[in-house]
Amino acid sequence: MASSAQLRLMSDLRTIINEPPEGCSASPLSDDNLMVWSATIFGPDETPWEGGVFSLRLTFSERYPEKPPRVRFTSEIFHPNVYHDGTLCMDIIQDAWSPCHNVSTILTSVQSLLTDPNAASPANPDAAHMYQHDIQAYNKRVRRSARHSIESL
């Protein structure tokens, strides 16, 4: 019998299949484990992230949706709110988590965070400093990261 977390994840999967969020995709990593998902976010158009294809891993616990998943980029990424190991620092998967969020809302929030970082709460102080004090150098670094994301596919 499926747990409540598994039932919710099956519902999230149906939502993603039937109403895919623009510029994002996700599915369980394997057919026999609903608790670990692979996701892809495409860099938003008309931003330094444009053309990039970024991979993530979402790891859910049996307490989902009461507790948020762990979300980590598996692609190399330079961003003020992403730790060096790829783990995200983002309100909706931490302090502002609510069971009303699902995989689609998480991914669209991550995509939005790419272009609108929270430099006041940095996970990567170097990226935050560059974003705040030398936006041209930051954008150049992001474009390089976007190009690299395609080359490593």
TrEMBL record:
Name of one Pfam family that matches: UQ_con
SUPFAM superfamilies: UBC-like
Source organism, top-level taxon: Eukaryota
SMART domains cross-referenced by the UniProt entry: UBCc (SM00212)
Domain named UBC core: residues: 4-151
Descriptive protein name: UBC core domain-containing protein
Lineage: Eukaryota, Viridiplantae, Streptophyta, Embryophyta, Tracheophyta
